[in-house]
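Side project, low priority. Logging it here so it doesn't get lost.
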Amino acid sequence: MRGATIQRRSRQVRADSPAVLADVLEDGVNMALWQRRLPRPVERFAALLARGAPLALSLVLELDHPEAEPDLSRLAEEHVGAEGRAEFIADVAWLVSAFACLVDARRVGLRLRSLETAMCPRFHVDRVPLRLVTTYYGAGSQWLLEGAMARARLGDASAEPGDVLQIEAGAVALFKGEKWLGNEGAGIIHRSPRPESGKSRLLLTLDWLA
């Protein structure tokens, strides 16, 4: 089964309900996008983090079971007492729990970063099974419909198409990568956006480690 390749055209699903995230488990779906708006306290605290000192936090969260509450005490610990921090941490904790339950994960890799440049500016696919991506502040990740760019030319700036789709701030995407069994050669094609002039991004990613 490991060498299996998806033969039919990959597709992406989008909806205003978090229930859409489960659709990424379906064969032939390489991205599920929950289009949501952030609560104002979360939005304001995310802006505080994005505009503050450079942030590059990486955690490996060990979970006794998928529904276990993650230890996020180190998240934005320099802002203890700040307005919106509790709501922000609660939102991240919900995403971790939802992600872990979806794939029955016992170990989740969390990265929270403020970015002033495009981290991965060329279109590419991820060499992971599944990754959750959400931009809490600033420009969201960009992606392509299947067939918009030849996979053989990924990374080639001259081959990049004009029809680029962008995820809004606050929306939650699940990107299926090349290491998802049966998804070889069909990972979602995406890239980091070019940040708006003078405006940084606050990016959260979750990876299924075990």
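Brief comment: Strands lie at 11-15, 29-34, 56-62, 107-115, 130-137, 142-143, 165-166, 172-176, 190-191, 201-208.
Revisit when time allows.
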